[in-house]
Structure formats: C-alpha cells, structure tokens
Write a structure and sequence with these properties.
ten-stranded antiparallel sheet, 2 domains, single chain
C-alpha cells in the first residue's frame, strides 16, 4: 500500500509547488492579471453630500442651539494634540484633534490627513492605521503669534471652510470642502434625482485638481485618474463593466509623472481582456 501512495503524494506536492510558484510569479508581475484585489478601490459611486446655502444656514442654526461638547466633533469623540517645532528664532505650532478609533478611509479621496505617532508628524496620503490616527475636528497652524492656516477635518479629509494667511494676518486664500471634495467640483449625472453619477471632476481654483471618476450607469467604476494643476498625471485606468463584484482592468494609460513635464507623450501601458488576461504591455 505504501508503494502506491508515495508516487501520488509526490505528484500532489509537485502540483502544489507548481501552483505556489505560479502564484509567486503572478504576485511579482502586477500585470499578470487584470483582476483588482484592492478592496479599497471604489466599485460603486460615492454619496455626495454637497449642501446648498439654505441647508448650511439651517445647520448653523441647529449648532447654535445645541451645547457644544468638549472635543466632540460630528458626533465623534476626539483627542487634542499639539506639534511644536522651531527653526532659528521661529516657533511653529500646529493644534489639531484626532479620532480615538480609526475607521476605513474614503477610497475616493486622494488627500487623507493623519497623525503618525511614531514620527509625531502630520502626514498626507497612504494612511496606515497601525501607525497613527485620522485628523478629525478643528485645525490651526501658527508661526509665532500669527495664525497661518485654519480649517476643519472630517475623518482625515478637509471639510468646510479653510483659510490661509500671510505673516501679517492678511487673508491669502479661502477654500471650501465637503468631506474632502472641493465644493467647486463638477458632477454630471445619468439621473440627478436618483443621484446616479456619471462623472466627477474635482476642481480647485478653476483647475482640475484631485481624483477623477467616471462611472457606468449601474454605478460601477469605469475610469479613474488624477489631475494636478489641470494636467493629467500618473496612471489612468479604465475598467470593464463586469456587472458584479469583481473589478477587472481594461486598459492603463501612462501620463506624465508630474504636471507640465516636457517632451512626455502619453502611452498605453497595458491592456487586459474581459477575463483579466494580459493581452498587451508596454514598459515604456
């Protein structure tokens, strides 16, 4: 009996080893499959809460009637933090609040702000819950006695009115956000009443700035990309409409790594079929 089982066991282990090697090679080659495994990638349209002026007035009146609880913002208990740095004779102070408990960040927002407890600094993007917590609540930056920047955070995203000043307390810039989205963002709909979004283009200071999204009528993501200073940058990815939970890349187009790069021509970097098989690749 032993003589019959050993070859079978050997073959099984050989097949298993082959599968493991195939998996390892697939992991090393990001283009080997077009199937997206990143759970943070949005697969359905976001719910935008852009309120009009009348709604904002109503909200302000409600806030005035309610007694403000210490270090509680948008119903979330927070912790007060201060970062103090000095350069020569100037002292810079950043006062801000952070969440007590982390939650999954909004996969649609490019700029997520968080406090890295290991380096004791505020970081933007690439949020790591094991290293820090999200900024949530009021923020103020001072250099000496002068206020340089003020604003509000909502779970790591800029929210409400943000103001920046020069060293003489003169207003330099004012911008408005809604949970990370610039209030001037352009949104087109398949059906406005049902909030079925077609395209979402982030706008700051009359220029495209941030993450762009195009959706299929069923809400699945069709195209994602990034703008900086009105220029397309980095990888723009198109997706097949799989009409399900699986997200499969269709094509990636490589744009300039930085805005206003000279002598850079966009090119198709890779293409996949509807099953996620690689059919074309150009390493540039």
């Amino acid at each position: 009996m032993m003589n019959f089982r050993l070859p079978i066991l050997f073959i099984s282990l050989s097949l298993l080893g082959g599968n493991l090697l195939a998996q390892e090679s697939a992991e090393k080659d990001p283009d080997s499959t077009g199937v997206v495994k990143n759970r943070l990638l949005p697969t359905t349209t976001p719910i935008l809460l852009f309120t009009d002026a009348t709604e904002e007035v109503k909200d302000k009146k409600k806030k005035k009637k309610k007694k403000v609880k210490k270090n509680i913002y948008f119903g979330e208990r927070t912790k007060r933090n201060i970062i103090r740095t000095s350069f020569r004779d100037q002292v810079t102070i950043q006062a801000f609040n952070t969440t007590i408990k982390n939650r999954q960040v909004n996969g649609y927002i490019r700029d997520i702000y968080w406090y890295d407890s290991s380096t004791k600094s505020i970081k933007k993007g690439d949020f790591n819950p094991s290293k820090g917590v999200l900024l949530h609540g009021p923020y103020e930056k001072r250099i000496g006695e002068s206020v340089i920047e003020t604003g509000m955070y909502f779970f790591g995203t800029k929210h409400g009115r943000w103001m920046t000043y020069d060293g003489k307390n003169i207003l330099v810039n004012k911008s408005h956000f809604s949970e990370g989205w610039p209030k001037e963002s352009r949104v087109t709909y398949y059906n406005r009443e049902q909030r079925e979004i077609e395209k979402l283009t982030p706008i700051e200071y009359d220029l495209e700035e941030g993450n762009f999204y195009h959706f299929y009528p069923d809400g699945q993501v069709a195209v994602i990309g990034e703008y900086r200073f009105g220029e397309r940058v980095g990888l723009w990815t198109e997706f097949w409409n799989t009409k399900g939970d699986k997200v499969i890349r269709r094509r990636e187009i490589q744009y300039q790594p930085q805005p206003f790069s000279k002598n850079f021509r966009p090119f198709i970097r890779a293409e996949w079929d509807k099953e996620g098989n690689l059919v074309y690749r150009n390493d540039g």
